[in-house]
């Protein structure tokens, strides 16, 4: 795509347009002798000159709505930003407990929330050993130099204070040195090694089932989850041992292991102000357990389904249990009857912070929200409909979408809700109760990429007595919302980049991005009608297996960008 010169429409000013019209009048209407401002015809000419000037200006503008249309043609959704993600290690756990999804931890005043229910264990690691069997007191294992692991060799092992029962899952976090800046893995990346995680039983070592391995064979820091199917046996009364053993393959660079720790949970930088969850009451089951952290700790309103999108509030007819406390981590809602219900849960003070503003019934009413950094995809709401206590779901649409009866959209550049105007959505009836937000999340964008150790405490430590927390890695992935124009500019830059091999420079750039490799540089040259790409890894590959893996992974990655009829060969120094 070459650079195109911008097209500018007629940008004549009002004075130029007026003078041009007056000159045309002289050639077409000599009989029109009175041309003073008091003449009605002259007044009409001035009005048309103003309208022509305004129309010319607006035709020459590209609004954010235009960019939304362009993105839609490209098949791209509006970019609403993303929340940072980071691992948090919980310590001083005195008894096994469940940490529900949505538990809030703090980096100063910035809120992070757990993304799923997590089992915290009072078990602990009481010993850590290198592959040679020597105890490592500071839990630091550094295999530096050109030490090559042999098949069946043990990388490291650790002891648990308590044994795992048959069928029990164990999750632990592995912290590795990632200063080598290995390329991020792709969705189809296969690690060059296969590890076996084994535990000691009365009949010897037994391999555990690997349910999850974010480390991809100890290449990246992450979580490992194992499942045992036999009772463990202790090691000379000192603990219950789990070891990591090399089964197949070889490393291009030996991993440097800093720490293995239990009770690591992934958290996301977001602040959920209100959320909704669903349940069903019946004669045989008159109670429903609330699942979200806000449901367990905050204020709860209950709405029974009356139709496809209609809900009636029945909070006063329900019995809502007290919020959770230490030692009691469940909260129930009771109802004598049969109903499909929606629970709207919010933190204390939220309703005072945002009181319902009246719906005027005026076309396209704008309702500004008093928060910044709203995660727009999270917002859901209901509006009063008809009789007392009846609400209707209102769906968000893009303003360029076809008309829907109950729809709202965001105003460009503002955290402002625009209700229906009869064209983009039906005009809601007037109501003094105003809209009811049923889901709202705030986030901090780039600020959520906090440094190591920034997360220091739980927001409600009294609910989990004595537990402390910290983040062993920095947060990443946080990104603020992009306006459609900025998103389109990024898309244009990406479209200009040829994601295929045409020149040697294209091949060199793509070779440096092969997922999972440590690539220092790449050179490409034409040789006898074939493109030869030479990859120089950051480490010195003394192992032929590693060189072969680099060649195969690079060839597989470059193959998708190779034009038909062009030969390709990859070499590895």
Task: Characterise the protein shown here.
A 7-stranded antiparallel β-barrel has the order 17-23-19-20-26-25-29. Strands 30-3-4-16-1-31 form a 6-stranded antiparallel β-sheet, with no helix packed on it. It is of the alpha+beta class and 573 residues long. 16% of the residues lie in helices and 32% in strands. The protein is built from 8 helices and 34 strands. The protein is flat and about 115 Å long. 28% of the residues are buried.
Which helices and strands appear, and what pairs or packs with what?
Elements: H1 14-28, H2 40-59, H3 64-73, E1 85-91, E2 97-99, E3 104-107, E4 110-114, E5 118-120, E6 125-130, E7 141-142, E8 154-160, E9 169-176, E10 193-201, E11 204-207, E12 209-213, E13 222-227, E14 240-249, E15 256-262, E16 264-268, E17 271-281, E18 287-289, H4 293-297, E19 299-305, E20 310-313, E21 319-320, E22 332-334, E23 339-346, H5 350-353, E24 366-368, E25 380-384, E26 390-396, E27 407-410, E28 416-418, E29 436-442, E30 457-458, E31 468-470, H6 484-496, H7 504-511, E32 519-527, E33 530-537, H8 544-559, E34 567-572
Parallel strand pairs: 26-27, 33-34
Antiparallel strand pairs: 1-16, 1-31, 2-5, 3-4, 3-30, 4-16, 6-8, 7-15, 8-14, 9-13, 9-15, 10-11, 10-14, 12-13, 17-23, 17-29, 18-22, 19-20, 19-23, 20-26, 21-22, 24-28, 25-26, 25-29, 27-28, 32-33
Helix pairs in contact: 1-2, 3-6
Principal-axis shape equals: flat
**Biggest sheet overview:** 7 strands, antiparallel, barrel
Overall pLDDT confidence:
85
Distinct helical segment count:
8
Beta-strand residue percentage: 25-35%
The rounded Rg comes to 32 Å
Structural class: alpha+beta
Count of β-strands:
34
Uncertain runs with pLDDT below 50, 5 residues or more? none
Strand order of the largest sheet: 17-23-19-20-26-25-29
Note the gap between the termini: 35 Å
The helix content, as a percent range, equals 10-25%
């Amino acid at each position: 795509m070459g650079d195109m010169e911008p097209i500018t429409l007629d940008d004549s000013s009002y004075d130029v347009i007026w003078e041009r019209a007056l000159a045309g009048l002289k050639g077409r209407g000599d009989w029109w002798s009175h041309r003073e401002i008091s003449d009605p015809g002259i007044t009409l000419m001035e009005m048309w000159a103003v309208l022509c000037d305004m129309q010319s200006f607006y035709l020459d503008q590209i609004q954010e709505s235009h960019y939304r249309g362009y993105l839609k043609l490209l098949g791209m959704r509006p970019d609403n930003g993303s929340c940072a993600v980071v691992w948090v290690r919980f310590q001083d756990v005195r008894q096994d407990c469940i940490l529900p999804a949505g538990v809030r931890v703090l980096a100063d005043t910035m809120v992070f929330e757990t993304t799923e229910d997590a089992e915290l264990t009072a078990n602990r690691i009481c010993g850590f050993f290198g592959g040679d069997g020597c105890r490592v007191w500071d839990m630091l294992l550094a295999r530096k130099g050109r030490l090559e692991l042999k098949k069946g060799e043990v990388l490291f092992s650790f002891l648990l204070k308590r044994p795992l029962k048959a069928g029990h899952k164990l999750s632990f976090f592995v912290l590795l040195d990632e200063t080598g800046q290995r390329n991020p893995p792709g969705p189809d990346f296969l690690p060059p090694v296969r590890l076996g995680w084994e535990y000691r039983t009365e009949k010897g070592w037994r391999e555990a089932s690997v349910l999850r391995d974010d480390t991809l064979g100890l290449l990246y820091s992450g979580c490992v989850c194992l499942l045992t199917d036999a009772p463990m046996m202790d090691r000379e009364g000192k603990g219950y041992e789990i070891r990591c053993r090399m089964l197949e393959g070889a490393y291009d660079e030996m991993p440097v292991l800093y720490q293995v720790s239990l009770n690591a949970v992934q958290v996301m930088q977001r602040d959920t102000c209100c959320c909704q969850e669903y349940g069903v009451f019946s004669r045989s089951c008159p109670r429903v357990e609330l699942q979200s952290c806000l449901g367990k700790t905050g204020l709860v309103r209950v709405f029974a389904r009356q139709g496809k999108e209609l809900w009636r509030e029945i909070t006063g007819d329900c019995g809502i249990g007290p919020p959770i406390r230490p030692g009691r981590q469940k909260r129930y809602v009771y109802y004598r009857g049969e109903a499909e219900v929606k629970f709207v849960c919010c933190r204390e003070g939220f309703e005072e912070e945002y009181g319902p503003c009246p719906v005027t019934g005026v076309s396209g009413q704008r309702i500004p929200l008093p928060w910044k950094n709203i995660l727009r995809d999270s917002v859901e709401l209901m509006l009063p409909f008809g009789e007392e206590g009846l609400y209707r779901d209102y769906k968000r649409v893009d303003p360029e979408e076809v008309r829907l009866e109950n729809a709202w959209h965001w105003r460009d550049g503002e955290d402002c809700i625009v209700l229906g105007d009869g064209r983009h959505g039906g005009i809601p009836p007037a109501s003094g109760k105003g809209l009811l937000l049923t889901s709202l999340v705030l986030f901090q964008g780039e600020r959520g990429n906090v440094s190591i150790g920034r997360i220091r405490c739980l927001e409600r430590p009294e609910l989990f007595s004595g537990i402390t927390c910290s983040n062993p890695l920095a947060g990443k992935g946080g990104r603020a919302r992009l306006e459609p124009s900025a998103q389109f500019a990024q898309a244009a830059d990406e479209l200009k980049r040829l994601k295929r091999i045409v020149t040697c420079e294209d091949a060199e750039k793509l070779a440096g991005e092969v997922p999972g490799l440590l690539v220092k540089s790449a050179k490409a040259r034409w040789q006898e009608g074939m493109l030869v790409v030479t990859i120089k890894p950051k480490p010195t590959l003394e192992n032929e297996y590693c060189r072969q893996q680099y060649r195969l992974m690079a060839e597989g990655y470059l193959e998708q960008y190779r034009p038909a009829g062009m030969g390709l060969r990859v070499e590895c120094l």
